[in-house]
Amino acid sequence: MPPTYIAAIDQGTTGTRCIVFDHGGQIVSSAYEEHRQIYPRAGWVEHDPLEVWEKTRLVIRAALAQGGIRPAEIAAVGVTNQRETTVVWDPRTGRPYANALVWQDTRTKEICDALASDGGQDRFRARVGLPLATYFSGPKIVWLLENVPGLRAAAEHGAALFGTMDTWIIWWLTGGPAGGAHVTDVTNASRTMLMDLATLDWDEEILRLLGIPRALLPQIRPSSDPQAYGRTGADGPFGAALPVSGDLGDQQAALVGQACFTPGEAKNTYGTGCFMLLNTGVRPVPSASGLLTTLGYRFGAQPAVYALEGSIAITGALVQWLRDNLRFFTRAAEVEELARQVEDAGGAYIVPAFSGLFAPYWRSDARGVFVGLTRYVTREHLCRAALEATAYQTRDVLEAMEKDSGVRLTALKVDGGMVVNELLMQFQADILGVPVVRPRVAETTALGAAYAAGLGVGFWSDTDALRQNWGVDRTWEPRMDAARRAALCRGWKKAVERTMGWLD
Q: How far apart are CA 476 and CA 53, in angstroms?
């Protein structure tokens, strides 16, 4: 019998998941493991790459066991990942030279400021679609080369490899020190600040300016590759030789999982951060409104598809912060229960600029604020304000996206862990003034990775087959009147202004 399933590995900021999907795009089995968040000092965020790989092995085995799935039943493996998180390791041993620098990490601010001193924050934007910001991988590589003893010499002599987490996972899956594939896809490469959007190759001039040896970098491949990047080993967690044929950054994977294959279609993913992507077709669209021009996906030899993206650093992470740092509750789901006990946020706003402000502001000098506090405000009001902050930040991004694209969105497809929060989804529809649509399969990031892998091996014939799998679970219609919406948004804009210029 032919294989009946696709396995997807979703390596995220807080944990790693393995999901097995059937041909209808439905979840057959799933397993998840969290990994540690390491904060050596203010603004620094790290992960232990070896811990992440060990958790990946655990969830693969657990997902197969849960579903009673034999390796022969799996047609291919797809990988999706937290983007921009940067790891450099020794290919001879698989040992990282340092912990991975997470996308939220801000230690590269001085490097970015120095680069911006000649040509400004948009110095490379015309070529790479990105501003100079601590968010992206390129400056993180520079920091590691400058601060990890012996790393630069190792990199120059071929004894070091760089990758985002997709590259790290695929390298281990396909053999690790015994010949693992050192690859990434166009979507992840587009987040390094090192790839030319037109050529889809590493930009030699930028590499030279940043002092990054090209030998450190992975080969750039399509997001869905009929040739496969490599095969899993019989002694690995899958226990058989399976093609690894799909690779997408997590937000682009969600775009694919939401079947946004037509220019003008958009999705918003609510996770640790919040990320809205708009399919702009086969030509990159420059942004004049603080958005990122990025790759959407590339399937095999077909032309690459581009996207505009609005990236928000802190959304679900704000709920985690209220839980872990302020101890407002013990389970993240309790935030909705508490927020429902009040009618509104009591005039309070929270702007979670913990890592500066991302789209559309791009202010690394910003820091988080609580504003509008009075003696009336309670824990319940602050829980509601935290949820509302996610919706306001999404509105900021949507306004910029409409300005850049000239397209007025009539509905927003949503996915990610926070979409189970129905109070948030209703407020999102209210503050946008458009319907918010949740699909039947909320794990669209993993689903997109599965689709990419499945297209690569012919498990699905084309994108039309993927569209047929998409279906609506629930739609929230806006209920707020325009005057109330405008007043709330004015308050939010004032709150955002208070965050800026905090760092000298």
A: 38
